């Protein structure tokens, strides 16, 4: 940027400070906060609305008139891209996450040089959005320090595989060296991916770190004036000049994300439990859980409120902590209260053929094009009919065994079910470490009251602590937009399901043609973000006359009807048809789908490459597709090992035959915090004997105490398909043979044998 323009910006910043106060109320001031007793709820709410020095500057700006404008000195198309994702409850941060980065990359590289000149305003001094890029200190097993207030644990693994959590033009094989690229990357590795993406595609002068956008104005001529202040990298650093500056742009892309602020429900009596209440985003490590239990003061019930992903993950984390305590006296109970029935999906699902079955990452099974009818694939949107709900439940039921099916749901219930992803939750429920309850928490006094759909109520007494797994609200990430624009967008801050009414598959509003949205919806996929960015940029680059209002108006009307639909007919996510979105965007943009073999195969971003002279795009896509082919190969056993290991959780009855004598007993597989080198681990007890089972990659390690009694269990051969899946395994360095029998994703029986000893578990 030219020196002249920089001086002009500073001059305008000074002129803003000298304006007269506004005489009208504005919607941009900090919300009022009621008084709460000291502790959790007050701390959560107060810190979320805490005024930093830059926020105080914003408040001063909003008391003043706006009578300034910077002339457009650069006649090429300036594009403003903002990425604001609050990731620190104590000191809110805004980061350039995947949606902002892919929008900027698309504008820079998908069109002739000079077509667009994008700028990313980023409040934080690093990129990544919710995704941390720093390697966590300490090992995964012991206590470790996590940055205060970060919403995502750096060691948390993605729910979907690396083939879905990626863009078309950067393969994970180009980010992580070596042959062992994780199928489900950890959060810090996702941050590393985004950093690599930025380094490869986005010049340094495009990204403005430490710039906090406080307001935007759409001028009479249609351009956008953006007001911003500098942010210090440290909270109490007052050396940064926080004068308010501004710039003008022709277009505005909102890539501010969805998870902007933790949602705290309004439950009568919750304030009285303030010191024993936390939001699930504050529980990352075993140390966080230990402190929560310490704060509870006495044993009792640990209540997780909220369904979907975070509720299941939080309840499982608490159960793992209790299971690892090595005490026979149960001191705490985990109760999970959620408003909807839900399916528990493991990270690997079976894909069956006539004679064999293969366990693949769940997204490669669920998003396989062969599941759609022949012909053009259309995008479906709107409330779910009873027929659709029944069909979906039947399909999910076919993938799972009866004990992994609706553990909290009657098959006759027509309500759309939610889905959560976990390898452990079902086992914890079956072993009574987690007690799920379907209903809504209506009040808290001496007991917690739950109202069920039937109108009946139940109570939980002796509450030790409460974890709010109630998700996030997106309203604060949109607060920089002018009130008249929010009015046109029919902004509903109290509706996190559909906060905005948009057209263009969530990318735009026909009445505001130079405003675009990327990834601003609940549950965004990386491939959809990339398609949305392409769709917006393609429309702006053509400069064609706007299309007839009929189709966008019809699309917005469908969104209104969906917003007004009863909760019983709403799905878990408003734009949940990932395959339909990707295919319909590809059709609109005339992007051919790349083949991966004889079958149609799964939908992944790398199969939809933008035609560009930059050959690096195609090279990266081919790397990802080759890795996908390897994963789809029957020789891959990682999914099988993960499925078998998860199926061992619980208590088994066994019968052991040795030299003609038969004995019986029980074996208990209890999850514990894993030892270094393992992803998950069990402490196994058979009477007076103890052993450990751990999983790493595609093998299971069995230790009976000491290296001389340890062996590695490797899977071989193809899994035989039928009513039961038969899995065979052998041990490296010894003659022990294993056979596992599975139905769906559950182990129903298994056995091992060595010369004259044979043990059968069921």
UniProtKB/TrEMBL annotation:
This is FAD/NAD(P)-binding domain-containing protein. Residues 1-31 are annotated as: Disordered. GO terms for molecular function: oxidoreductase activity. Residues 1-12 have a biased composition (Basic residues). The keyword Transmembrane helix does not apply. It holds the Pfam family Pyr_redox_2. InterPro entries: FAD/NAD-bd_sf, FAD/NAD-binding_dom, FMO-like. Signal peptide: none annotated. Residues 233-321 form the FAD/NAD(P)-binding domain. Keywords: FAD, Flavoprotein, Oxidoreductase.
């Amino acid at each position: 940027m030219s020196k002249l323009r920089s001086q002009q910006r500073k001059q305008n910043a000074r002129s803003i400070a000298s304006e007269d106060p506004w005489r009208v109320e504005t919607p941009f001031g900090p919300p009022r906060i009621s008084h709460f007793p000291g502790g959790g709820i007050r701390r959560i709410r107060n810190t979320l609305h805490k005024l930093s020095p830059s926020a105080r500057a914003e408040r001063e700006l909003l008391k003043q008139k706006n009578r300034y404008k910077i002339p457009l000195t650069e006649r090429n198309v300036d594009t403003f891209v903002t990425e604001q994702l609050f990731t620190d409850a104590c000191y809110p941060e805004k980061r350039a996450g995947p949606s902002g980065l892919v929008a900027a990359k698309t504008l820079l590289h998908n069109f002739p040089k000079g077509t667009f000149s994008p700028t990313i305003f980023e409040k934080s001094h690093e990129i990544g959005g919710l995704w941390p890029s720093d390697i966590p200190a300490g090992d995964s097993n012991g206590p470790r320090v996590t940055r205060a207030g970060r919403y995502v644990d750096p060691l948390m693994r993605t729910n979907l595989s690396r083939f879905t959590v990626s863009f078309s033009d950067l393969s994970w094989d180009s980010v992580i060296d070596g042959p062992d690229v994780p199928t489900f990357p950890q959060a810090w590795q996702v941050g590393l991916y985004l950093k690599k993406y930025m380094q490869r595609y986005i010049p340094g002068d495009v990204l403005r770190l430490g710039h906090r956008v406080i307001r935007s104005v759409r001028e009479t001529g249609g351009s956008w004036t953006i007001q911003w202040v500098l942010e210090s990298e440290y909270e109490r650093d007052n050396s940064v000049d926080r004068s308010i500056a501004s710039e003008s742009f022709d277009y505005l892309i909102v890539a501010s994300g969805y998870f902007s602020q933790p949602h705290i429900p309004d439950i009568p009596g919750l304030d009285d439990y303030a010191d024993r209440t936390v939001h699930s985003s504050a529980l990352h490590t075993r140390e966080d859980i230990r402190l929560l239990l310490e704060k509870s003061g006495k044993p009792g019930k640990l209540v997780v409120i909220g369904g979907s992903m975070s509720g299941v993950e939080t309840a499982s984390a608490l159960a793992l902590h209790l299971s690892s305590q090595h005490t026979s006296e149960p001191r705490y109970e985990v109760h999970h209260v959620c408003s909807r029935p839900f399916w528990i999906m493991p990270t690997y699902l079976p894909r069956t053929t006539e004679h064999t079955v293969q366990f693949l990452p769940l997204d490669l099974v669920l998003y396989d094009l062969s599941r759609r009818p022949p012909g053009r694939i259309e995008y479906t949107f709107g409330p779910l009919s009873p027929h659709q709900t029944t069909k979906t439940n039947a399909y999910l039921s076919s993938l799972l065994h009866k004990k992994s099916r609706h553990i909290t749901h009657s098959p006759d219930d027509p309500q759309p079910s939610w889905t959560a992803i976990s390898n452990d939750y079902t086992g914890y429920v079956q072993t009574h470490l987690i007690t799920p309850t379907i209903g809504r928490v209506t009040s808290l006094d001496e007991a917690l009251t739950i109202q069920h759909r039937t109108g009946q109520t139940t109570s939980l007494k002796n509450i030790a602590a409460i974890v709010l797994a109630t998700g996030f609200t997106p309203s604060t990430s949109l607060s920089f937009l002018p009130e008249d624009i929010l009015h046109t967008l029919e902004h509903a801050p109290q509706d996190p399901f559909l906060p905005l009414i948009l057209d263009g598959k969530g990318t735009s509003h026909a009445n505001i043609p130079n405003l675009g949205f990327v990834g601003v919806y609940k549950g965004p996929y990386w491939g959809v973000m990339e398609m949305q960015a392409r769709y917006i940029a393609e429309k702006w680059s053509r400069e064609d006359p706007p299309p007839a209002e009929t189709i966008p108006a019809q699309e917005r009307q469908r969104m209104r009807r969906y917003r007004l639909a009863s909760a019983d007919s709403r799905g878990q996510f408003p734009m949940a048809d990932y395959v339909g979105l990707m295919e319909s965007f590809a059709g609109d943009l005339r992007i051919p789908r790349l083949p991966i073999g004889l079958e149609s195969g799964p939908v992944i971003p790398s199969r939809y490459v933008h035609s560009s002279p930059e050959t690096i795009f195609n090279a990266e896509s081919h790397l990802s597709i080759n890795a996908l082919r390897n994963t789809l190969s029957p020789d891959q056993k990682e999914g099988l090992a993960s499925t078998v290991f998860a199926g061992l959780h619980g208590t088994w009855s066994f019968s052991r035959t040795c030299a003609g004598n038969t004995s019986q007993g029980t074996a208990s597989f209890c999850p514990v915090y894993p030892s270094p080198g393992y992803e998950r681990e069990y402490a196994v007890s058979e009477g007076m004997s103890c052993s450990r089972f751990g999983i790493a990659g595609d093998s299971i390690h069995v230790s009976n105490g000491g290296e001389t009694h340890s062996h590695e269990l490797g899977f071989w051969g193809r899994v035989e398909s039928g009513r039961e899946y038969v899995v065979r395994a052998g041990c490296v360095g010894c003659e022990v043979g294993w056979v596992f029998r599975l139905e769906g994703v559950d182990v129903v029986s298994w056995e091992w044998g060595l010369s004259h000893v044979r043990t059968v578990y069921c």
